[in-house]
Design brief:
- The protein has a 17-stranded mixed sheet that branches.
- The chain is globular, with a radius of gyration of 19 Å.
- It has 335 residues and is of the alpha+beta class.
- The longest helix has 18 residues.
- 47% of the residues are buried.
- The protein is built from 5 helices and 17 strands.
Amino acid sequence: MINKAHTITTTEMHTGGEPVRIVESGYPPIPGATILDKRRYVRAELDHLRTALMHEPRGHFDMYGVIPVEPDLPEADLAVLFMHNSGYSTMCGHAVIALGRYAVDRGLVPKVAPETRMVIQCPCGPVAVRIEVNGGDAGAVGFESVPAFAHTLDLEVEVEGYGTVSCDIAYGGAFYAVADAGRFGLEVPGSPVAELVTAANALSGAVRERVELAHTDADDLGYLYGSVLTDGRDGEPVSANVCVFADSQVDRSPTGSGVTARMALGHARGQVGPGEVRTFESVTGSTMTGRVVAEGVVGDLPAVTVEVCGEAYYTGAASFVIEPDDPFRHGFLVR
């Protein structure tokens, strides 16, 4: 029988249709000298709470969540870990957009009109956030992530079931393989999402076998997070894409870190310059904008700082109960 149930409370939001489940209480203290230490700790010691919140019956295959933690950077107003169906992201733009609005509405930072500024420490590094404040209410959010860069251009890989495919690899807080969906005989939008997922997963697998990724800041950042399939309209004012990350998880938003990576690729190809704005559309029709605000270097590679803008909305609040005698207390997935 039940001895003592464990309760976790959350605020529920979405950005462009992509869920953001923000933990407010119920997690134990998370030790670690740095945010990457904390990320390692939750992965090793608290992963049962991730699966309880992300997986069924409390979540679903494509759920996404945020765990606030103590920052270790003096300039940070807030620090967070990101979680999904198979682990913990290093960056998440759609969640940062939601967190900006959330932080202003919850009084985590002083509200300043017409614009409130704050810094959110993410596992990839500090992210500068600005939140529009209109009539006392928080509105659209923009963020400048860590420096982004093109890692490899025009990489040809043998993709099982599709033959030789040309793709790019770029970093926008996480590494992505980026390719025109047309190279797989698909369209974004237009093709069934299941077919896009199959192609994106095949591309990710091929790139992981071919390329060893590394980042100068930390070993933890050196892995391929997923693949972004585009409509091929690189450098155009408006372009659509779908991001498939983690374990076949489909982002309903244009993907903030993916937008950052795509802007870095556009800059590397001379398709977009500082100050120019591009709009990116997701499979739900939601949009984010990207703008190059500064140029620099990461290691020996040219890099850019990109501002990504979007809007987030509240969907509710929850109090989740984990009963110790529930055989499904730590979640499950049916796919």
